[in-house]
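Narrative summary of target 7.
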Amino acid sequence: MILIKSLKQKLLNLNNNEENNQQAGRISRFFFINILLLLSMLVACQSNEVPNTTNKTSPSFTTSPSPVVSEKPDNQIKGITYYNEKILVNGKNNQVHILTIDLSVKNIKVIPYLSFDRIYGFEMLSEMVLKNNAYAGVTSGFFYLYGRPSGLVVNNGALLSAGTGRFNSLIISEDEAYFETINTVVYAKTSTNEVLSIDTINAPIEGAIQSALYNQYYGKTDRLDFPHTVIHLLDNTIMSITKTDGPYDIPDEGVILCFRNLPAYTMINKYDQLTLTIEPNFEITTSAYECSLMIVKDGMNIATEYDPWIGTLNQYDPRTCVGVDEKGQLIFIVVDGRQGDYSSGVTGKELADICIDLGLINVAMLDGGASAEMIVNEKIVNSLSYNQEERPLAGGFLIIVD
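Modeled conformation, tokenized:
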């Protein structure tokens, strides 16, 4: 950098001479060209250096400059182990960050957290960790426009977003983690046994979706700008039935059921009983999150070349995944990428092989690329791939120690 400043000063001096002396100017052009070539070479060399991890992030956080490879796992806290390894994959260097959580340790909780604790919005992972006093945080999965989750989200038994049944969801109970395909079913039954089907939870009524359940996690209103019928339900009792042409306020207590067209034959009135059923029903000690495709199942590499959320898995990119090992431990993995010889990134199949070598038996993909991030004990431990800057996320996994 000192050399670059010196060369820039020489350029300035040459330019001044050029204004005062035409002959000196002709000579300076030769030097100018040579110096520009030298500057270009210096900049090119700098771009190939191991990235400087001076992150633009929360001032309370430090970042990990070129992580030192751990010969043995470092146990910072009982039940949580973080370490990183430098792994050679097909002749390419890769920095792999491994966070293992022993769910049998009672004071540890792993929850899928949405930014601002709401369906919509984006925050830095460091902000989520700080706000919730979490010990660690990892990038989670995928989201639609404005941060709406792509599938099932359950936070300590509270259902925030419905399962689609398309992909496996990570289920985290008190002392175990496993994967299961969840298709959320919602309906309400009147006192005369008429069944009102509810198409979705905390998602827009659009396209084939004709009805939805909204709770406080969705925001202040149902965000619907067309004529619809709203039923305010509290403890399975109808508190009000309202027809409106625009957004309706979501009450502080209970939920609202919104219908584009409530069936004309439906006979319900204020204070009638309307029994709401959501299947499956989760215990308060359970959290869940819908991931993307599985890349390891029963210890076998089943990674494909394409993922519906990620796209091609044949490129060398930063990757994030979550899995369980034979002991039932929950393991998050982040592989740094797009950083030259420091860490190239891996394909989907290569990531699956790494997971198998580390002892994982079931693994699902999470969001990677520029979003791939892992925080442990107030430090961003991986090297972020885009200018060493955090990317705003719609959610993340938080590991909280009570």
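The radius of gyration is 27 Å.
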